[in-house]
Amino acid sequence: MTGTLRGLRPVHEIRQIPPEAEKLNYSIGLPGGAYCAGTARSVVRSLLTRHALSDLCETAALAASELVACAHRFTPDKELMLKIRRQFDALRIVVYDQHPAHSSPEASEECRHRRSRGMWLLAAAVEACGGDWGLTPVLTPLGGTKSWALLPR
Prior knowledge:
By secondary structure, this protein is an alpha+beta fold. The protein is built from 4 helices and 5 strands; from the N terminus they run βααββααββ. Strands 1-2-3-5-4 form a 5-stranded antiparallel sheet. A hairpin with a 5-residue loop joins strand 4 and strand 5. Helix 2 (57-74) runs antiparallel to helix 4 (120-128).
């Protein structure tokens, strides 16, 4: 034997087995910037197609794009975390941003209200398919916001 492994097939002969829908669970860091909304759309479409969830592609891509765009409006050029997961017969799309904590509950509620008004397209798309969406402050000393969409399948 001269450095080769016997019994292994060449890579081009190995049949690619697509991942199962139930195993969809990804976390992706985005560097921040307006272009990240387009990146989120592309990533979500690609992952859902690969995991045989193409029927959710358009709504999920729109949801991810809107969540990222809203996070960018409130935390421009700050890193974001995009999570895509299939769990309990639903697709969950979550975006974490670095929005600073507010000094008062009133300021926090006003900010939440402004964010919610800006997500009218997300609300319409998600509610049309029987899903849900929302946002909540992340309970850390530095703050942050978790915004999410839930799409049933």
